[in-house]
Design goal:
Strand order of the largest sheet: 2-3-1-4-7-6-5
Number of helices: 11
CATH architecture of the largest domain: 3-Layer(aba) Sandwich
Number of strands: 14
Structural class: alpha/beta
Largest sheet: 7 strands, mixed
Strand content: 15-25%
CATH class of the largest domain: Alpha Beta
Distance between the termini: 43 Å
Number of domains: 2
Radius of gyration: 23 Å
Shape: elongated
Order of helices and strands: EHEEHEHEHEEHEHHEHEEHHEHEE
Helix content: 25-40%
CATH topology of the largest domain: Rossmann fold
């Protein structure tokens, strides 16, 4: 079977590398949207458990060209849906159209739905489907007139790790936080500090990496309810991931953070408890200007407030200056800052050694690394 590990802009390469590390077959990084791989249901489940920068795992049902709604109808109808969907399955459809002859998502949804119903009528000898059973979320994506029809094996996005139930003033998606940690060059044996940690997402994702904790360990995935999946094999894979975390949690952590907002620190403490990391990460209420790091140099990672997001550019500039001063107070420490502030380096006081572009929601940001 062919699968897509979807990923946001800038994270496709990391997702592809992680798939290769998991031993997946025929991994191919896509120009946009993630990476492809081949494997069975157990492989897709392992990818769901372990991929840190991936949004969803999608089972590819077919690909074909369609420049008319009739071609779309015939292409979707030709897919052997009965091999995956039981008679009582619910099958809602999402549609996305980019640079194609067919550019109406609502019409694509209607045509694809009708085609599936016609196919299943013949397969099951039924005239009506109540759709009261397991949900199979169908995605129809059309780009440059090529149609990709897939089924979402994840359910909730993979960024929903299960530990974050409260959001602070400017939440950072978990998959993006993991990408920032991985791109920072930080190693788990090094100290890591976040001087504006908010509700703790960067710190928790770093701890998951250091302790070999699968990001999807405590959540469920849509594919676990599919009748064609051997659930007992999935239980074994989850137990193996739990055993790795039990072994990894014995490792020492040198991860800490602070924030000027006491409410944010309170939320971060709650998230640590829900992530199974209570007492493993040191948190404090502290103004960044009062932070001084001593001992073995490590990595400072920060997602500071930036003007476009919080509508306060003057405050964003002030934080950039404070981060520059912080690095000067901590010789030997690398500092990595994620911001949409175009004037960040000017206020910081020097140019970044490396830069990477990502999107935080719809906001284009740069990840600047100061060696």
């Amino acid at each position: 079977m062919k699968w897509i590990a979807s990923a946001a802009f800038g994270m496709e390469g990391m997702t592809g590398r992680d798939l290769k590390h998991l031993g997946m077959q025929n991994v191919r990084v896509m120009d946009a949207g993630g990476a492809e791989f081949e494997g069975g249901f157990e492989d897709a489940f392992r990818a769901s458990l372990w991929l840190r920068t991936c949004d969803r795992i999608l089972l590819v049902m077919d690909r074909f060209e369609a420049r008319s709604y009739e071609e779309l109808f015939q292409g979707v109808k030709a897919i052997p849906w009965e091999t995956l969907l039981p008679e009582d399955a619910a099958f809602p459809i999402r549609a996305k159209c980019v640079k194609s002859q067919l550019m109406s998502p609502s019409d694509v949804q209607k045509i694809a739905k009708r085609a599936m119903v016609e196919r299943l009528k013949v397969a099951y000898g039924a005239d009506w489907f109540d759709e009261t059973g397991v949900t199979f979320q169908v995605d129809v994506s059309i780009r440059n007139d090529e149609v990709t029809v897939s089924v979402d094996a994840s359910g909730e996005p993979l960024s929903k790790r299960g530990y974050r139930t409260w959001n602070g003033e400017a939440p950072l998606r978990e998959t993006l936080a993991a990408a920032l940690i991985l791109q920072s060059g930080w190693h788990p044996w090094q100290p890591l500090y976040d001087p504006c940690c908010g509700t703790g997402t960067l710190l928790i994702e770093a701890a998951f990496i250091a302790l070999d904790r699968a990001p999807g360990l405590t959540r469920r995935f849509a594919m676990e309810l599919w009748p064609s999946v051997d659930y007992e094999k999935l239980i074994v894979l989850r137990e193996e991931a739990e055993a790795r975390f039990e072994k990894g949690r014995q490792r020492a952590l040198n991860i800490a953070g602070s924030d000027i907002n006491p409410e944010a620190i309170e939320l971060a403490q709650r998230h640590l408890r829900q992530a199974g990391l209570q007492g493993r990460i040191a948190l404090s209420v502290k103004d960044m200007r009062d932070v001084t790091l001593t001992g073995e140099p490590g990595v400072i990672v920060a997602n500071p407030p930036y003007g476009e997001r919080l509508d306060n550019l003057r405050a964003a500039h002030a934080v950039a200056r404070q981060l520059g001063a912080l690095q000067r107070r901590c010789p030997g420490w690398k500092l990595c800052a994620f911001s949409a502030d175009a004037g960040f380096e000017r206020e910081y006081g020097r140019r970044a050694t490396r830069r990477r572009r990502y999107y935080n929601g719809r906001i284009e940001c740069e990840y600047r690394i100061f060696e």
